[in-house]
Amino acid sequence: MRQPDIEIYLKDADRQTVGTWLEQSLGPCSPWQSKGEVSTCESASGIPIVWLPKAVGKWHSLLLESDNTPWEDDLACARDAYQALQVEIRCAPGGWQEDEQEEEADRWISLTEQGEQEIIWRTG
User: Which residue from 60, 71, 75, 107 has the fewest beta carbons nearer than 10 Å?
Assistant: First the structure.
């Protein structure tokens, strides 16, 4: 089932490199607008994009606020991003629910040069 939005976490990536990958995947994007730490832009197809550096420690958050992306879910996006950027990426294993048990919320998929693996990542 297609997720309503996509969010992945990237380690050791910069906004410019991620922006180049996004343009290859989504088409041209508007110039980045920054408010404090948060930067936003929009793809030509109308997908709002949010970049939050160091959202969780050294991890940067990339949020695509649309269900109209080329990826069905976070994991598909994370796989594509890893292939293009070759940096460690983490994402939730499925859609996130507000009433989810805490231990379920700490389950993540990590994509590295060693492959994909499920990990426990306590972000709170």
Answer: 107
87 belongs to a structural domain: yes
Tell me the whole-structure pTM to 2 decimals. 0.91
Task: Indicate if the alpha-carbon torsion angle 20, 8, 120, 3 is positive or negative.
Answer: negative
Confidence of residue 123 (pLDDT cuts 50, 70, 90): confident
Domain that holds residue 32: 6-120
Left if phi > 0, otherwise alpha if psi is -120 to 50, otherwise beta: which for 15? alpha
Task: Identify the residue with better confidence: 70 or 99.
Answer: 70
* Count of structural domains, the chain: 1
